[in-house]
Amino acid sequence: MGKTFSKQKGWGLAAVVLLILLDQLTKRWAAVRLKTGGPIRLWPGVFELSYLENRGMAFGLLQGGRALFLIMTVIVVALLLYVYLRINPARRYRWLRLAIVLLAAGAVGNFIDRALQGYVVDFLYVSLIDFPIFNVADCSVTVSGIMLILLLLFVYRDADLADALPGRKNAARSAQDPSNGGGSQA
Length: 186
What we know:
mainly alpha, three-stranded antiparallel sheet, 6 helices, disordered C terminus
């Protein structure tokens, strides 16, 4: 990684590890405490901790698709790592880096469960609206998704994204330059 690896990127990768540890520790606690002891109602009728083994993906969709989830996660995390290590270190891209960190941590946190147990431990339950039970990794993925949508809609433009990832700038210019065979010809 040499010159392209910075202290900033090291902090981001450390944050991924810490978020994965938080996710795994809370899931282990849920498995020990909630699986046998039953739910804990922190705010009766609103929020509780309740153990669930989710063999599907988000909201229990695609039950039994373990192999597909594992393969998809490896591909997505590899792509996220590639992008994260190449992203422009400028301060204006810190929120983009944070979104990538959260997404990677959440993906790996649930990957560990699926790979080792065949299911993901969920335990956070918003009973007020009967929302599907979720976990810390799911929170990371959801916050990341919201951040990416907001960043792409309101903060970054095409030129910003070209600047964020070295190499993309030249590809964007080539596509618009008719002398390079790109762009539209009348």
